[in-house]
UniProtKB/TrEMBL annotation, chains A, B:
UniProt xrefs under Pfam families: polyprenyl_synt (PF00348)
Record key words, sorted: Isoprene biosynthesis, Magnesium, Metal-binding, Transferase
Species: Steroidobacter gossypii
Metal-binding is among the record's keywords: yes
Matches recorded under InterPro entries: Isoprenoid_synthase_dom_sf, Polyprenyl_synt, Polyprenyl_synt_CS, Prenyl_diphosphate_synthase
NCBIfam families in the record: FPPsyn
The family this protein is said to belong to: Belongs to the FPP/GGPP synthase family.
Signal peptide per UniProt: none
PANTHER family reported in the protein's UniProt record: FARNESYL DIPHOSPHATE SYNTHASE (PTHR43281)
Protein name, UniProt field: Polyprenyl synthetase family protein
Length: 313, 313
C-alpha cells in the first residue's frame, strides 16, 4: 500500500481510514475533556495562574502524544480509563515545553496554535510558573490520579519513563542542543541527535507509557513498540521541519520559516528537502515493519504513523 | 529550656548542642556528596546545561530541606541510605525554584549564595532549562534511585508528597501569590497563606517524605510530624522576612531589603517586627510541643527547629 493511498487526512468518506479518522477525533475529544477535568479551576486562588494554565493547555493542538497513548492502548487492548492519567501527563509535559520554549529568552514566539503565546496573553513570570506547574501536575497525576492502573509498580514505571524522556537526556537536553545550534553548522547526525531528544523522547514515552499499563506484556512486543516509537518520533520531527519550510501559516497556526529566521539548523537545511522526505518515508516504513509482531493490533498504530508523516499541519 | 540556651549557632564547644552542630555538618556534607553524584556530568552533552545545573545546585546553601529529611529520619530510626533520594529530590526542587525565581521576569536577583545567579553566570534560556531539568530530575530520583526504600508504594507516596508541595497548591502557587502581592496591601492572613504555600509546603514535604520512608509509622506520629512541619515551615519564612529587614548582606549572601525594594508585603511589613518575632517563637514552641509523642526521638527535630528560628542567615 503506498503512502498516499493510506492518507487519513482529510478523512475519507468510507473504509478503514474513515474509521481511524473517527477514532482519532474521539481520542482528541477524550483528552480535551480529561485534561479540562484535571486542570485547576480559575475559581481557586491563584486564579490568574490557573487561568493561564487552562489557556495554555486547552482548546487546540493535534494532541499527538496523548492520542499515541490511546492508540497504543488500542493496539494492546487496554481500557482507555486506565490510560487517561498517562495521556494527560504526557500532554502536560508537552504543553509546558511549548510555554517555556516560546519565552523571549528561548524561541521568542508570539503565536501558538493561532493564538498569542502564554507570555503574550499573560506575562513572562506567569508563563514561567505555568510551565513549572504543568510539569509537576504531570507527575502528580501519575502518582495519584484514578485514570491509571492501581499497581504502584506500574505507576512508578510511568513516572520513570516520563521523567527520563523530559530531562537532560531527553526533551530539556534537546532544547539546550537546539539553542546551542543557532547559527552553527551541524551534521545530519547532530540534527538527528537533537531531534531524537527534543521531540523523539516524549513521543517514545507516550507509546511506552501505554505499554507499561498493559499487564504481562512480552519482551518482544515491548521491543517492537520501542522500535516503532523511535522511528515515528524522528519522522514526526522531520515532517515538522519540512512543514516549517513549506507550510502555510493559516493551516499550521504558527509562523512558518521560523527556524530559518532564527538561523536554526533543521533536517532539510542540513540534508536537503528531498533527502529529508526520503528519510521520513524510510522511518515510516520502519515503524510499520516494527508492528508486524504477534499479540499486537497493528492497525491503530499504523494509522497513527500515516497521520504523523502525511499531516499538513 | 529558653530559646537562647538551646542556640546551636555558632556551635558550642560541648553538650548536646555541639553534638547536633556536628550532626548537621555531617548531613550538609552528605547531601553535597549525594547531590554531586546524581547531577549530570559536564563531560556529557549538553555540557553547558550540565555545567549550569551543577553551578546552581552545588557549593553552598544551608540545605535546610535535605537536613530536615535526615533529621526526621534520625528521629524515626531510618538508615540515611534510605533517605538520600528524598533528600536530593527535595533540594533539587528548592534549587530549581531559586533559579526560576531569580529570573529577570520574576524577582530579578543578581546574587544568590554570594555568587552571580544562574542567568547572570550563564544566560536566561539556560537558567530556564536548568530549572526545568532539576524539577524532572527530582522525580526521576524518586522513581529510580537506589537511595530510597525499594517498595514502589513508598516511592509513589514520595512522588505524591513532593508533587503536591511543588504545584499550584504549594510552591508554584505561592510564588504566583507573591508576585501578585507586589505593591498591594495584604492582611496578616494573606501573608501567612502566601508563606505557607511558597516555603512551608516544601519544608512540610521534607519532613513527611522522610516519614513516608518509615515502615509501619503510627497515625499519631504521622500527625505529630505534620504539626511540627507546618509550624517550622511558617516560622522559617518569618525568620527569612526578619533577616531581610535586619540582616547583613555579607552573612546572608544575597541582597537584604530586597522585599522592601520590590514593595513586597512581608510578615514584618504587615504585622510589625515585634509581632513577627512573637509569632515565630509561638510557632517554634508549637513545633517543640508537637514532638512530645512516644515513638519519636525528639532531639534532632527540636534542634532543627532551634536552628531554623535562631539562625542569622
Amino acid at each position: 500500500m503506498s503512502l498516499q493511498s493510506r492518507l487519513i487526512e482529510p478523512p475519507l468518506a468510507e473504509g478503514p481510514q474513515a474509521s481511524f479518522a473517527a477514532q482519532l477525533k474521539g481520542w482528541q475529544a477524550r483528552i480535551e475533556h480529561e485534561l479540562s477535568a484535571r486542570l485547576p479551576s480559575i475559581d481557586v486562588q491563584p486564579s490568574r495562574l490557573h487561568e493561564a494554565i487552562r489557556y495554555s493547555v486547552l482548546g487546540g493542538g493535534k494532541r499527538v502524544r496523548p492520542t499515541l497513548v490511546y492508540a497504543t492502548g488500542a493496539a494492546l487492548g487496554i481500557p482507555e480509563s486506565n490510560l487517561d492519567a498517562a495521556a494527560c501527563a504526557v500532554e502536560l509535559i508537552h504543553a509546558y515545553s511549548l510555554v517555556h520554549d516560546d519565552l523571549p529568552a528561548m524561541d521568542n514566539d508570539d503565536l501558538r496554535r493561532g493564538r498569542p503565546t502564554c507570555h503574550k496573553a499573560f506575562d513572562e513570570a506567569t508563563a514561567i510558573l505555568v510551565g513549572d506547574s504543568l510539569q509537576v501536575l504531570a507527575f502528580e497525576l501519575l502518582a495519584s490520579d484514578a485514570g491509571a492502573p492501581a499497581d504502584p509498580a506500574v505507576r512508578l514505571k510511568l513516572v520513570q519513563l516520563l521523567a527520563v524522556a523530559s530531562g537532560t537526556n531527553g526533551m530539556a537536553g534537546g532544547q539546550a542542543l537546539d539553542l546551542a545550534a543557532i547559527g552553527r553548522k551541524l551534521s545530519v547526525a547532530d540534527v538527528e541527535e537533537m531531534h531524537v531528544r527534543k521531540t523523539g523522547a516524549l513521543i517514545h514515552a507516550a507509546v511506552m507509557m501505554a505499554a507499561a499499563c498493559a499487564p504481562h506484556l512480552s519482551e518482544t512486543i515491548w521491543r517492537a513498540l520501542e522500535d516503532y516509537a523511535r522511528a515515528i518520533g524522528l519522522a514526526f520531527q522531520i515532517q515538522d521541519d519540512l512543514l516549517d519550510v513549506e507550510g502555510d501559516v493559516a493551516v499550521i497556526g504558527k509562523a512558518t520559516g521560523a527556524d530559518r529566521a532564527l538561523d536554526k539548523p533543521t533536517y532539510p537545511s542540513v540534508a536537503g528537502v528531498e533527502t529529508s522526505r526520503q528519510r521520513m518515508q524510510e522511518l515510516h516504513a520502519r515503524a510499520l515493519a516494527a508492528l508486524e509482531v504477534s499479540g499486537l493490533q497493528a492497525a491503530p498504530l499504523a494509522a497513527m504513523s500515516d497521520w504523523l508523516v502525511l499531516r499538513k499541519y
